[in-house]
Predict the structure.
Amino acid sequence: MKILQTIDELKTFRATLKGPVGLVPTMGALHNGHLSLIQQSCNENEHTIVSIFVNPTQFLAGEDFEKYPKKTEADIKICELCGVEALFMPDVQTMYTSLEPSILAPSSKSYILEGLARPGHFDGVLQVVLKLFHLSKPHRAYFGKKDAQQLYLIQNMVQTLFLDVQIIPCEIVREDDGLALSSRNVYLSNEQRSEALLISKSLKTATRAIIAGTRDIATIKHEMLLTLEPLHVEYVEILRRDFDTIETIDLGNTIILVCAKVGTTRLIDNLWI
Ligand code: PAF
């Protein structure tokens, strides 16, 4: 596996590739969720490039940019074992200059939910993802459904900027007890981890209500909030998959989103129905 750190190295490597290329953009601290994206890319493409870059422009002042978990050696091993052909690991100076054009995510969809708590976060995500697409020219790029709003905004960018890449949404990977995998789970103490299980439990509450025939959004949200009660809930939303509001469940085109703070850690989870 090649480890590439500069733009020239990546461009030169990319020029040697023939056949479909898959890109898996990550911020490192790889877990089984990332592993499933990487494995899917390796199965579906002749070549897989993984990027590891903790992107400063998507962090707000006071967030965990400086202490974002790093496991570089383990990440390299994981990528090697999965059959990744190249790992792109640039530093901040390689990716950014002091004169950057602004990339703005559409505000009606990027200043709600995650973007309400983290204004500008999605602008930074789109900025780096666009750069990674330009550099690695992938045929397919793999993103987890756990970051549903990010996935939607990236799909929207690809569509509106006529980018030639297919976005592949990948299923959320969970621990046996239901906790959605996240690099930030390492911040949780044992006690906090148990509390965090209420998040996936609230999605199960919603599933049960829907299976029982409930379609009214307000009723389902109410039941979910009862499950989540001990936690500091930031939002529970039930929206159409394009993040527009709905009043009743539209099966096959609905997404249920939860964000709660456990200690100082914000955790998100969702269910596509
Ligand atoms: O989901 C992430 O890990 C990041 O937001 C991404 C897509 C790698 C951009 O920095």
Observations:
- The chain has ten helices and nine strands.
- The chain has two domains: 2-170, 183-268.
- The pocket of pantoate is lined by residues 25-27, 55, 58, 125, 128-129, 147, 150 (CB under 6 Å).
- The mean pLDDT is 98.
